[in-house]
């Protein structure tokens, strides 16, 4: 924690004269200041200068150049406005220090509405200079090329018209885009193709002349034999990923049609580069850019682009005083790849599935890895421990009961991640539906005569706005990336009718073990009373606490600030490629936000693990230890995550027995 500046201290001393709102504003402003320094290396000065950094007033959180400028100009003449791409802040220089002081006083805490209609609060601080250091990193990822105007408008039209979306040969409607495969079908379950089962017909004839031309002109070296056509509606994207090494050869090319898009490339060391793909351009990924960098399209309705016309393709860089937002259109891409016949021998073995060794799981840094981690370290584990888990889950928590009892009779309520259904029968006047990812847990609910179904919290088979309320108890912390946690909450909000409420519980990083240790142990022995807490939920039945040595490197160095960190500051997750996840020691404080939490399975619930051993199982002498993945939330993090959701207001936010809790209402 940085030491507060002298100016801040003196303001602190006069805190007693400030009213509650002013204190809150000051706190938020200081948080913004700390976050900017820690994550972005931006140093704030305490005396007034001509220059200000505007936290939350950035392209990265949907504020356009013209919107911000009109607000800033109310306070004086703006000399320069720098809006770095994808950053949640901007820099402004006023003509005089007087004017910037005026802006500092009048605009701190000012609410503005962003491009998507969300409320955003600005926090301003003085800086010495208006500059943006990260520009120097902004070069294209090695091995990447964007060739503009590779085809004519007529050819573009012809290609677009050649796609028969209604034909039901090979056509998948993924969550947010339309997809067609040629040559080989691409399987999204394992991100690979079935190399023994080529599709009849091969690639469409129309593609041949283009591929031949690109080969002749040297843009590509191999003739592709697989084509994926994707159609993206504005606001839709594709999660960051690396195309499976073992599935395809080095060269991957993608033709953009219909509309331009910004594609985000990210190096595991957290260098991010936004690349503009204009319509009719060809993206060629080879070498490092194909094997090591992830690529993805952030789902949003606007992209950051150069405001002036001359710089159209490639990297979003140049003059950061010249960036603005561009509305997306419908984009269709033709991605050509060549199916690989031998294992990959690239020099990026850490991300190479052909060269992967088995071992403890790493921190996931893309959606694919996160999903795999959850499958192995959440879904499979709950399936295995369901019986034992259920036997330790009988006492409902008072605040959750209170929430359920406060709902009007006849309300339709979804319990997302219902476990053994301990909340499904609390209020007999409600119509409750339980959902869980674990078949065994859902079976237990059904045995207890509850309505329950197996489903994934990211894609609920429930009609939008059909629920009066939802509860999500100890679920969201099992999603392994910030994006997936937001998606889970978004999905929950989707189910709510306007005015409907949701109660969300997640594990807190901040545990009060020292204070409560003796109480916990006593409660466990008695196994009665509601403080049968969810957090130290291993070794029930009075058995001793099993201490597992922590593995891996817990002191992970760099952090990835999320866009919303600037709003909520202090807490951030440690997202580092290839960092092994540490194993948590039960009933101790958390040392990392992303951890594996042991579950000790023994007695009549311990099965003799016949069949395939699980990665996530460590056999001990007398019993079996399973590891469940958790992302424990810091103070303010759940609230900040909820604040990224649209059409939601936070009614209540509190701490309850090692959990951060929020009650939301859909607007
Ligand atoms: Mn790809
Ligand atoms: Zn490889």
3D architecture notes:
Helix content is 24%, strand content 26%. It has a seven-stranded antiparallel β-sheet with strand order 7-17-14-22-12-9-8. Helix 8 (367-391) packs parallel to helix 10 (439-447). It is globular. It has 14 helices and 32 strands. The chain has 667 residues and is α+β, with helices and mostly antiparallel strands. A hairpin with a 5-residue loop joins strand 15 (261-266) and strand 16 (272-277). The chain folds into three domains: 21-127, Alpha-Beta Plaits; 144-351, Sandwich (Jelly Rolls); 367-531 and 542-666, Vaccinia Virus protein VP39 (Rossmann fold, 3-Layer(aba) Sandwich), CATH 3.40.50. It binds manganese (II) ion and zinc ion (ZN). Zinc ion (ZN) binds next to loops.
CATH H-level homologous superfamily name of the largest domain: Vaccinia Virus protein VP39
Strand order within the widest sheet?
7-17-14-22-12-9-8
Tell me, rounded to a whole number, the average pLDDT: 79
Structural category: alpha+beta
**The biggest beta sheet, please?**
7 strands, antiparallel
């Amino acid at each position: 924690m940085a030491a507060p500046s002298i100016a801040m201290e003196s303001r602190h001393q006069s805190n007693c004269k400030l009213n509650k709102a002013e204190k809150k504003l000051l706190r938020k402003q200081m948080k913004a200041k700390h976050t900017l320094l820690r994550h972005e290396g931006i140093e704030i000065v305490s005396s007034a200068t001509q220059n200000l950094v505007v936290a939350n007033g950035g392209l990265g959180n949907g504020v356009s150049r013209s919107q911000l400028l009109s607000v800033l100009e109310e306070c004086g003449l703006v000399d320069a406005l720098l809006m770095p791409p994808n950053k949640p802040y901007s820099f402004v220089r006023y003509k005089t220090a007087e004017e910037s002081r005026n802006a500092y006083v009048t605009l701190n805490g000012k609410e503005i509405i962003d491009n998507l209609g969300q409320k955003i609060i600005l926090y301003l601080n003085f800086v010495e200079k208006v500059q943006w250091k990260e520009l120097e990193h902004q070069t294209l990822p090695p091995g990447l090329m964007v060739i503009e105007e590779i085809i004519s408008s007529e050819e573009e039209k012809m290609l677009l018209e050649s796609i028969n979306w209604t034909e039901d040969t090979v056509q998948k409607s993924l969550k947010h885009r339309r997809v067609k495969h040629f040559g080989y079908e691409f399987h999204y379950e394992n991100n690979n193709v079935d190399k023994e089962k080529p599709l009849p017909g091969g690639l469409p004839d129309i593609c041949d002349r283009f591929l031949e031309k690109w080969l002749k002109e040297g843009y590509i070296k191999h003739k592709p034999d697989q084509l994926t056509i994707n159609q993206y509606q504005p606001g839709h994207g594709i999660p960051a990923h690396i195309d499976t090494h073992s599935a395809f050869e080095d060269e991957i090319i993608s033709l953009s049609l219909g509309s331009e898009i910004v594609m985000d490339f990210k190096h595991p060391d957290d260098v991010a580069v936004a690349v503009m793909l204009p319509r009719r351009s060809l993206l060629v990924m080879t070498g490092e850019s194909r094997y090591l960098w992830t690529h993805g399209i952030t789902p949003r309705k606007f992209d950051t682009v150069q405001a002036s016309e001359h710089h159209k393709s490639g990297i979003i860089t140049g003059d950061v005083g010249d960036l603005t937002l561009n509305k997306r259109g419908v984009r269709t891409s033709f991605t050509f790849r060549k199916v690989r016949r031998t294992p990959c021998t690239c020099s990026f073995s850490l991300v190479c599935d052909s060269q992967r060794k088995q071992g403890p799981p790493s921190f996931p840094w893309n959606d694919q890895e996160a999903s795999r981690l959850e499958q192995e370290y959440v879904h499979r584990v709950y399936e295995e421990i369901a019986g034992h888990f259920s036997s330790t889950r009988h006492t409902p928590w008072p605040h959750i009961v209170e929430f359920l009892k406060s709902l009007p009779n006849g309300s339709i309520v979804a319990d997302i991640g219902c476990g053994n259904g301990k909340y499904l029968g609390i209020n007999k006047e409600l119509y409750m539906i339980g959902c869980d990812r674990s078949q065994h847990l859902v079976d237990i609910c059904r045995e207890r005569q509850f309505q329950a179904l197996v489903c994934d919290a990211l894609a609920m088979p429930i009609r939008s706005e059909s629920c009066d309320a939802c509860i999500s108890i100890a679920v969201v912390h099992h999603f392994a990336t910030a994006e997936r946690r937001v998606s889970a909450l978004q999905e929950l909000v989707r189910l709510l009718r306007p005015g409907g409420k949701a109660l969300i519980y997640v594990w807190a990083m901040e545990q009060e073990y020292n204070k409560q240790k003796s109480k916990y142990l006593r409660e466990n022995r008695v196994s009665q009373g509601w403080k049968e807490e969810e957090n130290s939920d291993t070794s029930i039945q009075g058995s001793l606490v099993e201490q597992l040595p922590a593995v891996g490197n817990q002191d992970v160095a760099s952090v990835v600030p999320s866009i919303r960190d600037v709003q909520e500051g202090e807490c951030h997750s440690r997202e580092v490629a290839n960092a092994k996840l540490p194993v948590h020691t039960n009933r101790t404080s958390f040392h990392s936000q992303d951890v594996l939490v042991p579950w000790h399975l023994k007695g009549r619930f311990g099965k003799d693990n016949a069949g395939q051993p699980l990665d996530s199982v460590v056999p001990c002498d007398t019993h079996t230890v399973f590891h469940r993945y958790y992302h424990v939330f810091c103070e303010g993090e759940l609230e900040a995550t909820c604040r990224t959701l649209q059409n939601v207001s936070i009614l209540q936010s509190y701490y309850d027995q090692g959990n951060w809790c929020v009650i939301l209402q859909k607007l």
